[in-house]
Automatic annotation (TrEMBL):
It comes from Paenibacillus marchantiophytorum. Residues 11-71 form the HPr domain. InterPro entries: HPr-like (IPR000032), HPr-like_sf (IPR035895). This is HPr domain-containing protein. Signal peptide: none annotated. It comes from the Bacteria.
């Protein structure tokens, strides 16, 4: 499977780091901290669908920003409403 491009991974991580909320990507039974570039490099694939979990004081804004950056790079993500 092709991995997502480096620019997408860096932008996703940088966007996540703007927020205080916990932002976690779920794929199968794996959970990856989106603020970790290394975690994204080893997990994020352009052909996969992910669930994004956001919890914290600025989660509404974080969910919007993260959905936008994933969409910008044509990466499938489902922002989970808890």
């Amino acid at each position: 499977m092709p991995s997502a491009n480096n620019a997408a991974i860096v932008e996703i991580s940088q966007t996540a780091n703007k927020f205080r909320s916990s932002i976690v990507l779920q794929y199968d039974n794996k959970y990856i901290d989106v603020k970790s570039i290394l975690g994204l490099f080893t997990t994020l694939l352009s052909s996969s669908k992910y669930d994004l979990h956001v919890h914290g004081p600025d989660e509404a804004e974080a969910k919007i920003a993260m959905a936008e950056v994933f969409a910008k790079h044509d990466l499938g993500v489902n922002v989970v409403a808890d």
